[in-house]
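Here comes just one.
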Amino acid sequence: MGNRGMEELIPLVNKLQDAFSSIGQACNLDLPQIAVVGGQSAGKSSVLENFVGRDFLPRGSGIVTRRPLVLQLISATAEWAEFLHCKGKKFTDFDEVRQEIEAETDRVTGANKGISPVPINLRVYSPNVLNLTLIDLPGITKVPIGDQPADIEQQIREMIMQFITRESCLILAVTPANSDLANSDALKLSKEVDPQGYIGVVNRSQKDIDGRKDIKAALEAERKFFLSHPGYRHLAEKMGTPRLQKVLNQQLTNHIRDTLPAFRSKLQSQLLALDKEAEEYRGYRPDDPSRKTKQLLQMVQQFSVDFDKRIEGSGDQVDTVELSGGAKINRIFHERFPFELVKMECDEKEMRREISYAIKNIHGIRTGLFTPDMAFEAIVKKQVIKLKEPCVKCVDMVIQELINTVRQCSNKLECFPMLREETERIVTSHIRDRESRAKDQVLLLIDIQLSYINTNHEDFIGFANQSSVIRKGWLTINNISIMKGGAKEYWFVLTAESLSWFKDDEEKEKKYMLPLDNLKVRDVEKSFMSSKHIFCIFNTESRNVYKDNRTLELACDAQDDVDSWKSSLLRAGVYPEKTITVTTDNFSMDPQLERKVETIRNLVDSYMAIVNKCIRDLMPKTIMHLMISNVKDFINAELLAQLYSAGDQNALMDESQEQAQRRDEVLRTHQALKEALAIIGDISTSTFTVPMPPPVDTSWVGGTSGGRRSPPASPTAPRRMSSGQRPAPRGAPPPPNRPGPLGPFNNTADSPQAPSRPNRAPPSIPK
């Protein structure tokens, strides 16, 4: 491709650009930037204007370019310019472009020669340019003027290095022809980054600029200069602005060559991703009734599958952010609902008060000798009724999650708004219809528990089974004499009838069983030397409690353990030494009543544990049967029929505007990708390297090394030259042959140069 020149490259790149512009995308070939580097008044602006073919840059003495100018050249059918800071405004008069650059520079830097690294972005659209980016950088200076800081040279140097050290940057070093290349600051900076050769060009002089000499005439004068000058005519074909453009074009084509494989792979991946969707849309007829019927069936089936997967679980499209669907319902069943049941547990003091009232009201004026079972049933029923609230709340939470699941599944129907809305309405209405039935059934479960208190349940301790364990744990018997081994720890088991202790918690070797009749509890003051907290059990009839001991001293590690054991003993009917009198309104609780209260309290706990276990088991089953499974069956079997009966099914399948846009976008993108790949297929990726020009011939000068003649003056003097081997100033020795930013001159005219960096290789052109 490259050997056909820039006139062949532009149409191909434009074709790619047009293919992507049709779908609102950019053809991202990542073309390199060209940074123009040079001293003050070295001719950088002239080089840029030669590329554009227009006079549009500010002129003057000193630092004229005081902010980086990022110049984007964009191939277009018409010619205009626009600034990033003036979006929407087109400049067709390039004198106005110059004025805007000056005004924008002064706005940021002031009018007194200050500089700023903030770039000015300018786009120039023209049929005569290639899509590339050039950067005009401030001229290198050493002496600050005006408001410039003392370190102005270092600031400009750092600014320049920020641009030219980028891998995708091509360096255009500009040096006046009447200066010694050995002292060129532009070449010094460039060689730090990329030490390769240069190309000479002749720019317009200040006199030419003031005389409004156009670019075309300047290029003709440049050509005449190289053909007529004795030092350059033997390599005139390798000098000049056209040659510089050609070399840069070679660099660009090589860059395109390097970029195309990855770019082609990216396009092929995008095309493959769109193939299936584009095939579905191809030949698509939005108003075809048969298509709408078929698509309605497919959408409903997909909705049913998605709902089932979200409820039952699926390995595909797993949500890693939060629980949803079946997982959240499972959490409601086995975490939230049990937690709500636990929250319903009443206050202990309130429970004891209610039990005491129930017992006294049942006995009436008489003093009862036995614990009434009617008090037990009354308290149990009151506790069972409290279960209705958490059960109904559980149903509400499951219903809400089902509705959320329906909405999540309907997201795939968003391309058909009416179908989505109608599907959500129908399924949600069905869920609400089932809500009342589910709640009625749940409340029925509670009523069933209330209808019969089954005191013969195998897990119920019952009145006749008061030997059931109230508490187990380790205690230390503290009052065993040292002669008998001293204090020793045992495993204690407390029931409603006795207190037993064993050698260990395996309960195989029982050491003693102490009946609870006539026993009471009192505190024992903690000794100074002991870290244990002690309480003791004694017989109210002054009998020995344990062998020869009138008391049984028991020790715990913490006071909380002591209080807990005393509370458990109280439930077993073993009261503190001083009678507890609990005043509740006009009632006082005597020890006999307290024992009855503790008995019923123990029975209520036992029976409610049975009820809670039953409800916790039946609730998920009831909701699953009446709600979840029923909704799944409804979606699978009846949703389609409901949609047909809801109205015009053709209207249901009217696609949204977004879906129509999506279909058009997919088809256009798919076609653009195919066209782009076809264009890339026409581009050959083979290249060849164009040799650098030979050294300047100085034999025409004649004489000895100490007395050289100056070269003849060019037609319009003084001239400037950029990026190349320059003619020496009058009376000066010819410049030495040394390397520069694009590759060193060789003594052999046609030998190619070895690259120093991948992005800065010698110019080469695909064949």
Observations:
- Confidence is low (pLDDT under 50) at residues 1-7, 579-588, 700-767.
